[in-house]
Automatic annotation (TrEMBL):
Lineage, highest ranks first: Bacteria, Bacillati, Actinomycetota, Coriobacteriia, Eggerthellales
SMART domains in alphabetical order: FeoA (SM00899)
Pfam families: FeoA (PF04023)
Gene3D superfamilies (alphabetical): 2.30.30.90
Single Gene Ontology MF annotation: transition metal ion binding
Coiled coil: none
Alphabetical UniProt keywords: Iron
Organism (species): Slackia heliotrinireducens (strain ATCC 29202 / DSM 20476 / NCTC 11029 / RHS 1)
Protein name as annotated: Fe2+ transport system protein A
Domain Ferrous iron transporter FeoA-like: 7-79
Length: 81
């Protein structure tokens, strides 16, 4: 069985969408991500990335949110076509 490459929210290009599969990590960072409405099964759209790469701006459930790249690495996603 071939090992599947893990894709995080940080890997999704600007203008791309993805479905959240899992949130890894624990504690404050995990709670912050979930408090923003980013949960398993939700679709997220990457609107833009700041020039220096932080933050990543997303649209989640109709809301515009900003997420640090270090936090985006904790969100395992499946890219949508």
């Amino acid at each position: 069985m071939a090992e599947q490459e893990t894709i995080t929210l940080r890997d999704i290009p600007v203008g791309g969408s993805a479905k959240v599969l899992k949130i890894v990590g624990s504690g404050v960072v995990r709670r912050h991500i979930m408090d923003m409405g980013i949960t398993k099964g939700i679709e997220v759209y990457v609107r833009k990335v700041a020039p220096l790469g932080d933050p990543v701006e997303l649209t989640v459930r109709g809301y515009e949110l900003s997420l640090r790249k270090s936090e985006a690495e904790n969100v395992i996603v499946e890219p949508l076509q």
